[in-house]
Design goal:
437 residues; alpha/beta; 8-stranded mixed sheet; 4-stranded antiparallel sheet; binds zinc ion
Length: 437
């Protein structure tokens, strides 16, 4: 799978993406090879709450030439060189005027910063500070930006859906608007598709699942304004998952939602950074707003704001790795596994304890490996380690006490402090014996 991840990282990295434009459509078409994605769109100019979908922006070429006719900045070399949503320009100007449209980072002199100007008509180029210092201050420069704003254009986004037993939905969302930046957020987009590919394989899952690949901010705002989100009970905003730093988890705004609990179990035994919720970051800002209050968490590996290379040309394919992405994917898969396992069981009869010795073949099965791995693919981290009969008997006692049709498995784990995997295993045994329904 790592090879496959690598293939898509390489294929998608060079594409120029923004909040609109052909690059986004091309990106979604390629992602459709990983898992089926319906490509939808909203026309430019559509009102969405107090926002409106911007005109579609596309760019053919953009460069700055010195007086000798040499290109000193060229969008062809890196799509980060052009400020996203730059208006068309074709003029010769002096250094001072050019300089007011240049962006660079003095403290990171070898990196090109990532800049956008979505809602203010402007133009600009980004370059390394080293390249900036090499510009001759006494020269005139020709600036050429062949970009187009189409008021009759569209904003595209991708959607996929897996129907489960319940109409309640878990949202898996990520943002597709960043150009050639690897960790933020090509990694998140690719992980979301691989995750959803596994979700689509689930047989009769407890929850329904929705995948939403949108440009950040305006994407969820427009989706929420045009679609019903009443069935979405929680989800994940997937961002920055393939960097070299520790795993991390940013909690939902509730902090103790089922999503938070499932993620905690999935991260069990791993070293990870805990981030509390704050309404700063990514699309949790929209989903968590008062009219929706959808709790979303984010599992990260080198979280946005936390790494030096963030929003610069150094956030490239050398900064991330497909094995780091796979590591994060496994945590997301495990979280979904726990969400699916967290059932509310009811005992067949609730009077006192079951007479366990009367249950045929109970004891030989206790120590066995009965738990069915939820995901069929080669995620060997789902293998269940054998537990002793004693441990499983403890679990059975707690299940006999707790399974009243009200308590879910997570709450029984919290009370009992028993291992979640053992509880799931014991619940499966009792279910097979038709003692739990
Ligand atoms: Zn970003």
């Amino acid at each position: 799978m790592e090879d496959e991840i690598k293939l898509y990282l390489n294929k998608l990295f060079p594409i120029n993406r923004s909040i609109t434009g052909r690059g986004n459509e091309k990106t979604l078409q390629i992602l459709n090879e990983i898992c089926p994605i319906e490509i939808n769109s909203i026309p430019s100019g559509t009102k969405c709450f107090d926002w409106s979908v911007p005109p579609e922006w596309n760019v053919k070429e953009a460069w700055v030439k010195n007086s000798k006719g040499e290109k000193v900045i060229d969008f062809n070399n890196s799509n980060l060189h052009l400020v996203s949503y730059s208006c068309p320009v074709n003029k010769t100007i002096d250094f001072n005027e050019l300089s007011s449209h240049l962006h660079y980072l003095k403290d990171k002199p070898n990196s090109i910063p990532y800049r956008t100007s979505y809602y203010k008509k402007n133009w600009g180029f980004c370059l390394t500070y080293e390249d900036y210092l090499n510009l001759n201050k006494n020269e005139k420069y020709q600036v050429f930006i062949d970009s187009k704003f189409n008021e009759n254009g569209k904003m595209v986004y991708g959607e996929s859906f897996k129907k489960g037993k319940s109409t309640k939905e878990i949202l898996i969302t990520s943002y597709i608007c960043h150009p050639s930046l690897a960790n933020d957020n090509l990694s998140g987009v690719i992980l979301s598709c691989f995750l959803f590919r596994e979700i689509l394989k689930l047989k009769n899952p407890k929850y329904s699942y929705r995948l939403l690949l949108v440009p950040e901010t305006i994407g969820p705002i427009s989706w929420l304004s045009k679609n019903s989100s009443k069935n979405i009970v929680g989800g994940y905003v997937i961002s920055c998952v393939a960097g070299p730093d520790s795993l991390g988890y940013k909690k939902t705004f509730l902090g103790n939602h089922e999503i938070d609990k499932a993620t905690k179990y999935a991260l069990k035994g791993k070293k990870y950074i805990k981030y509390k919720f704050e309404p700063i970051g990514s699309d949790e800002r929209q989903f968590s707003s008062p009219s929706f209050r959808i709790p979303t968490g984010t599992i990260t590996k080198s979280k946005y704001y936390e790494y030096e290379e963030y929003h610069t040309s150094l956030d490239n394919l050398n900064f991330i790795s497909s094995s780091f992405l796979k590591e994060s994917l496994d945590i997301y898969l495990k979280s979904i596994y726990y969400l699916e396992c967290n059932k509310i069981y009811k005992r067949k009869f609730g009077e006192c304890e079951f007479m366990l010795s009367k249950i045929p073949n109970l004891y030989p099965e206790i120590g066995g490996t009965i738990s069915q791995p939820l995901f069929i693919s080669n995620h060997n981290n789902f293998k269940y380690t054998k537990k002793t009969n004693g441990e499983i008997l403890d679990c059975i006692s707690w299940l006999m006490f707790g399974c009243d049709g009200v308590n879910d498995l997570f709450s029984i784990q919290k009370k009992s402090k028993l291992d979640i995997d053992s509880l799931i295993h014991a619940a499966n045994i009792l279910k097979e014996k038709k003692l739990l329904i």
